[in-house]
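BUG: 3D viewer hangs when loading the predicted structure for this chain

Environment: internal workstation, default settings.
Expected: structure renders.
Actual: progress bar stalls at 90%.

Input used:
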Amino acid sequence: MSAATTTVPGPDGAASRLGWALADSWTMTRRELAHWARQPVAVLVNLVFPVMLLLMFTYLVGGGRGVSGDPTEYLVPGMLALTMAFGLEATMLAVTQDLGKGVIDRFRSMPMVPGAVLVGRSAADMLQSVLSLAVMTGVGYAVGWRWHNGAAAALGAVGLLLLLRFAMLWVGIYLAMVAGRPEMVTAVQILVWPVGFLSNVFATPASMPGWLGAVVEWNPMSATATAVRELFGNPGGATGSWAAEHAELLAVLWPVAIIAVFFPLAVQKFARLSR
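Structure tokens produced before the viewer hung:
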């Protein structure tokens, strides 16, 4: 663990407090980034795993069932959304390891902004997510996927993907503090898998039984995947339902709702850790 720089509270005032908060948060972010250099294998695994899933479903298992058109152009945007929901193990392990070693208690005893630890953790995770998206986009391009609606729409799609990631990040941070121990992370992480696979990432809802397709369309990941496909100009396997027709709206509302629930829960849980 790299040493964290302690800060001494400055003069009163909103601007001063904001400055100290940003400085402390940046210190915690640098601490998390330093772990990348010390644990390159873990970073590499987090990058390679979604690539392996994409290649497996593209060439071995098959994806895009029920799509009229190139199934690869249906599958890749879905896999980008799936990548944003998965891969939280690293975040959860980091939080639980810090808890188990008493690192977070040490940080809380320092004269620093209490939330800086969480901000640093989330900032590092989002940087990792941007890197994952870049790698997955490159691999998708290599296997034949293309976007067709220009740079502005593509950036909008990336924004929706990162918004989903930011929402899932706070779910992971909260669940990690609830789990408390690294050995519990796997058990908690299993809960994420049904959300990922009970979606339209690999197949269209129209190809599923009616009741299952209806459930799938209201999955937050399905909303993001459908919205991203629309922005990229890829086939979406639209069913004409309200959820499908308003996917871009749901791709914003679902993550915002998740953040509204789990961000305060995570902050409150963090504040009670040493009580």
